[in-house]
Specification:
Elements (H helix, E strand, L loop, with lengths): L15 E3 L24 H15 L15 E4 L11 E4 L5 E6 L3 E7 L4 E7 L1 H6 L1 H11 L8 E4 L9 E2 L1 H10 L7 E3 L6 E3 L1 H11 L4 E4 L14 H7 L7 E6 L2
Parallel strand pairs: 2-3, 7-11
Antiparallel strand pairs: 1-12, 3-6, 4-12, 5-6, 5-7, 8-10, 9-10
């Protein structure tokens, strides 16, 4: 089964997908390819949506962890049954499909083709600020990857023109590193600023020494037809929201 998923030029030749919200069976605010088991969507609909994603990738199941906005990355040495609490995974296991969910937070897929190691990370501001990206690179290295050979691709994420933050948020970043002020620009609201989460993710990865970084520049908030968005849902006072899934397979 083929879904209208997005693929990255930098990962050409590797089985992967940045799934959109299109091609599933969910209804209402979840229409239609909702992959979020933590949503209030009908469980049977989410299960069918995930089944379709797995078929698209040519695997039996997707390994998607219980995400907690942490800096934790798990080295997957065998398919797990009980979802681990972490926000990134890496593996050298053939046939394993590593996935993460998102609905504004960054979803990053990693690959070192030469070493045969892949990874997937979920990075909102907390994860990116807290070190989940660096942890993913370190875990991949532990499995035999070389940092300079790793390609990282950022999929659908809330864009810099859509992410407004308050003064306390800006202060937290600048207190950690004064150069982080460059990821904020003025907002129409006084004392507020627009945050460039994709730019910050790219900066952290490149500073950490990743070999190649590609940002697909897909704004989840602005593109309602293709993407779910937690912030858009919040602004509309909707009852809940769907989750996107991005995944990669080591053949």
């Amino acid at each position: 089964m083929s879904l209208p998923a997005i693929e990255a030029p930098a990962l050409a030749g590797l089985r992967h997908a940045f799934f959109t919200r299109e091609g599933g069976v969910s209804e209402g605010v979840y229409a239609s390819l909702n992959g979020g088991v933590g949503s209030k969507d009908a469980p049977e609909a989410v299960a069918e949506n995930r089944r379709r994603m797995a078929v698209h990738l040519g695997v039996d199941t997707l390994l998607v962890p219980y995400q907690i906005h942490s800096p934790l990355c798990l080295a997957v040495t065998e398919p797990w049954r009980e979802r681990p609490r972490c926000d990134a995974q890496a593996t050298a296991l053939r046939g394993a499909a590593l996935g993460v969910t998102g609905a504004d937070c960054g979803m990053i897929l990693f690959a070192d083709r030469a070493a045969g190691v892949i990874g997937a990370a979920h990075a909102g501001w907390q994860g990116a600020f807290g070190g989940v990206l660096e942890a993913t690179l370190e875990t991949m290295e532990g499995l035999g990857a070389k940092r300079a050979d790793i390609t990282a691709v950022l999929g659908p994420t809330i864009g810099p023109q859509s992410y407004e933050t308050g003064p306390e948020f800006v202060a937290r970043f600048v207190a950690a590193d004064a150069s982080y002020a460059g990821f904020f620009k003025g907002s129409a609201r006084e004392h507020h600023a627009m945050f460039d989460l994709p730019g910050f993710i790219g900066h952290r990865l490149l500073t950490a020494g990743v070999g190649r970084f590609e940002n697909l520049a897909l704004d989840t908030y602005a593109d309602e037809a293709r993407f779910f968005s937690y912030r858009r849902t919040t602004h509309r006072n909707e009852p809940d929201y769907g989750r996107l899934i991005s995944a990669i397979v080591l053949e």
